[in-house]
Design a protein that fits this description.
Helices cover 19% and strands 28% of the residues. By secondary structure, the chain is α/β, with parallel strands linked by helices. The chain contains 4 helices and 12 strands, in the order ββαβββββαββββαβα. The radius of gyration is 18 Å and the shape is globular.
């Protein structure tokens, strides 16, 4: 496994791991990654942590933490911090990789859980309103973990057509957990093209490149696990 850091080439990455609010979809690094995935016919695979940063409060949504901005015209995913003592459980209908991620999160929970809400971009239906172009994209936030009221606290957003998978987990999730899950489960399940690369030795993890959308100096110590071994020359 070869990590790439902020400001390095992303066009040949197999996935993006973003510890702070998801990748900036309007900037060149994400655009290059998405273009590379399309060219190779791969699913765009993103793991994004939500909820970090300054929280705000309003009468309609209550306390809101910074959420995730989705690509193009698909909208965003908001994050509302939940009270202490919330005990999430696995949602129904999960595939193997989703079930494994949910189990890992339950075994090593973050300090705070957030209720996730998919906020779709809308177009006005009022007579005489300007037509929105391009039209808002269609997508779905599928729960992986839910709270006692059935609201998602971890999930995967998938656009219509299934060209991408954005896994949204709480800020404070153990980053080693996410790296291990990406390499051992997510890449084999959702980016099988990575299997065409040579193996990185006798251990059962194939070589691939994961982009980390954070400065290397801030993250390098956190990512020094066996999952981040460099590919052989």
């Amino acid at each position: 496994m070869e990590p790439r850091w902020k400001d390095q080439e992303t066009g040949d990455c197999a996935a993006i791991l973003s510890p702070f609010l998801g990748p900036a979809t309007g900037l060149e690094p994400y655009k290059r990654y998405a273009a590379g995935a399309r060219k190779r016919g791969e699913t765009a695979l993103v793991v994004a942590c939500t909820g970090t940063g300054t929280r705000s409060h309003n009468v309609f949504s209550g306390t809101v933490a910074p959420g995730i901005h989705l690509p193009h015209y698909y909208g965003s995913i908001s994050a509302n911090p939940l009270p202490v003592g919330v005990s999430p459980e696995l949602a129904d209908g999960l595939d193997h990789a989703e079930h494994d991620l949910g189990t890992r999160l339950l075994n090593r929970p973050p300090d705070t859980w957030f209720r996730l809400t998919y906020l779709r971009e809308t177009r006005s239906s009022r007579p005489g309103a300007a037509r929105v172009w391009p039209p808002p994209g269609e997508g779905e936030l599928r729960p992986i973990l839910v709270d006692g009221l059935g609201a998602p606290v971890a999930g995967v957003w998938v656009p219509a057509g299934g060209s991408a998978r954005w896994f949204v987990v709480p800020h404070g999730t153990d980053q080693r957990l996410l790296v291990e899950w990406l390499v051992q489960h997510a890449l084999p399940a959702y980016v099988p093209g990575a299997s065409s690369l040579p193996r990185c030795g006798p251990w059962p993890i194939r070589c691939a490149t994961v982009c980390c959308s954070a400065p290397a100096t801030r993250w390098r110590k956190r990512c020094t696990t066996s999952s981040w071994r460099p590919a052989p020359r």
